[in-house]
Design a protein that fits this description.
This protein is mainly α. Helix content is 81%, strand content 0%.
Amino acid sequence: MVGLLHTIEIAIGATCLGLLIGIGGAYGKLYGGPVVRDLLAVYTTVVRAVPELVLILLLYYAGTDLINQVLAALGYQRIDISGLAAGIAVLGFVQGAYSTEVIRGAILAIPQGQIEAARAYGMSPGLLLRRITLPAMLPFAIPGLANLWLIATKDTALLAVVGFYELTLATRQAAGVTKAYLTFYLAAGAIYLLVTLISNLIIGRIEARARRGMPSLKEAR
């Protein structure tokens, strides 16, 4: 039960962090200067090209060590970063690259007349983002973001390799003690499936609410 709770906590935290990074990254790639666009292009390309397990190992160990080295150089004491915070930060960083591209595509799908009209009224970039861009792009972004949520839920299992106690590590430990590998791994698979099914129901309601007043997907076909 504790392992499942940690899995859900990390998935929610990583998805929220990735969403924040994605909004900023998409806005930067669309409206930022050349340097910002180039840096974001490198970020999204590298993260999407390197296997997630390699990124997790690199960021989990090298990232925490780098933070402590910087703190030591500044005269501060080394700190112990909790596994939960590190897991959220690592997966959130990975999620951010994918969220950037999903949200960028959703913004491009918005009829540009809406954005041009808002600019004609003199809206600031922040107000334009909050009042026009985010609400208008949400129906286009939900399917992609829903997939990223499901990926984040499954990617929490990769944190078992760095010793963080989540559902997969809890299953492995229980199976190792009891030698009932088939029973425990089937149970873990069923739990992941249940989380996915519940997530799909919730996402379906959110998407239906976000698409109110818009043609249904069946009609669009």
